[in-house]
Amino acid sequence: MEISMRNSVLPVIAYAALALVPLAVVTVFGSLGGYADYIYELGRSFALIVFAVLLLQPVLAGRFREITEPYGLDMVVNFHKYMGVTALCLIIAHPLLLALGGRGLKLLTSLSVPWEIWLGKAALLLLLIQAGASLFRKRLGLDFERWRRLHDILAPTILVLAAVHSYFIGGDLKYVPGMRELWVVALLGSAGVFVYHRFIRPKRLPRYTVRSVEPAAQNVWTVTLAPPDGRSPRYEPGQFHFLTFRSDHVPEEEHHFTISSSPTEAAIIASTIKESGDFTRHVGSIAPGDTARVHGPFGRYSYVFEDAEVPLVFIAGGIGITPLRAMLRHMADTGADRRVALLYACKTEADIVFRAELDALAEGDRPRLDVTYVLSRPDEGWSGSRGHIDTALIRECCAGMLDEAVFFVCGPEGMAKAVLGSLTELGVPMSRIRREEFLLLD
């Protein structure tokens, strides 16, 4: 799936244009720029930009392929997070600049202000709560489902409060022809995107049937799904999808999982899942015949997007082997003549996922695979590498590849950061390192 430069640049241009539309309209047709006090003008400009950014947040979070394919869903979600923080900073600055620009400190401190100003203050307070819950979710002890329910309540509430506040108090909306109508249409459009993403589309997703649930390693299960029409789903090795199981044994919640199967495996799609949380600890109880809504695939974490002549280094920790296994299986099934070094870290030998398959792939000639297992808690009989994947081990296992290989890193956050530090120490530029981050998806 080749993504052209044109297709990757157009969404950025479109976002910037839409975010600046309200400001541009009132600048050209309205009174913005007619005030002598630049600080006051700046405060009003921030309000217009904030509202436009808030309107576009549901679009960024909506998983639309036209937006996610050029960059990967993880990058789009991170951009969504950063724009939320940007909106918060601008909305905090908005009343401060208005006060400094001539409205006086009473705008900030007085209780005797019009109701529409109170709506603006309420929107600011809720946006502070929203940002705090999103940025510090784990420190606050919020699991993902509770955070998402809070987010689904606060986000539309903030948008409505901001819209009503600006509709009734914004001078530009009163005096610029068509601005109030534009405000209403934009609000309804944004709300429509939110409702479609959270409530309508999930009901329309295809329902796959669980074909099997089999142990893959200690506390790790491979769940294999069959599509409703019997056709092999289209995806690239290394991508992920969102699954919502309907089973008596797990909550009906949406979670993202890497697709561990290869696109060459006909008429099935599989995810290999580790028991690691309130939801996943029950995965082994899912039974054949249960069903799952599937939304995907997503992501650009795949070797198919790299030049065919470039050697590859896969560095995995624990269950992070799943996208790399999918890529290796795909290489073997398609006869891809790739040189690959795999460094795979686990705690114990029982934690190694796909051990037999990886060993078999290493014995073949396509791909040309070298596997190094590294255990941090090996038993006495272990004869392989011990400890952690560090700079010395990477240098040893990647001899002759460091200057040209593309590195795929997948594993726990601490392990991935340590590996990135080692790669930097070895002089590997970030342009040759691939890693997906799902800090807002789990």
TrEMBL record:
<dbReference type="InterPro" id="IPR017927">
    <property type="entry name" value="FAD-bd_FR_type"/>
</dbReference>
<dbReference type="InterPro" id="IPR050415">
    <property type="entry name" value="MRET"/>
</dbReference>
<dbReference type="Pfam" id="PF01794">
    <property type="entry name" value="Ferric_reduct"/>
</dbReference>
<feature type="transmembrane region" description="Helical">
    <location>
        <begin position="117"/>
        <end position="137"/>
    </location>
</feature>
<dbReference type="GO" id="GO:0016020">
    <property type="term" value="C:membrane"/>
</dbReference>
<dbReference type="InterPro" id="IPR001709">
    <property type="entry name" value="Flavoprot_Pyr_Nucl_cyt_Rdtase"/>
</dbReference>
<protein>
    <submittedName>
        <fullName>Oxidoreductase</fullName>
    </submittedName>
</protein>
<dbReference type="InterPro" id="IPR017938">
    <property type="entry name" value="Riboflavin_synthase-like_b-brl"/>
</dbReference>
<feature type="transmembrane region" description="Helical">
    <location>
        <begin position="82"/>
        <end position="105"/>
    </location>
</feature>
<keyword id="KW-1133">Transmembrane helix</keyword>
<dbReference type="InterPro" id="IPR039261">
    <property type="entry name" value="FNR_nucleotide-bd"/>
</dbReference>
<feature type="transmembrane region" description="Helical">
    <location>
        <begin position="149"/>
        <end position="170"/>
    </location>
</feature>
<feature type="transmembrane region" description="Helical">
    <location>
        <begin position="42"/>
        <end position="61"/>
    </location>
</feature>
<keyword id="KW-0472">Membrane</keyword>
<keyword id="KW-0812">Transmembrane</keyword>
<feature type="transmembrane region" description="Helical">
    <location>
        <begin position="12"/>
        <end position="36"/>
    </location>
</feature>
<feature type="transmembrane region" description="Helical">
    <location>
        <begin position="182"/>
        <end position="199"/>
    </location>
</feature>
<dbReference type="InterPro" id="IPR001433">
    <property type="entry name" value="OxRdtase_FAD/NAD-bd"/>
</dbReference>
<feature type="domain" description="FAD-binding FR-type">
    <location>
        <begin position="203"/>
        <end position="304"/>
    </location>
</feature>
<dbReference type="GO" id="GO:0016491">
    <property type="term" value="F:oxidoreductase activity"/>
</dbReference>
<dbReference type="Pfam" id="PF00175">
    <property type="entry name" value="NAD_binding_1"/>
</dbReference>
<dbReference type="InterPro" id="IPR013130">
    <property type="entry name" value="Fe3_Rdtase_TM_dom"/>
</dbReference>
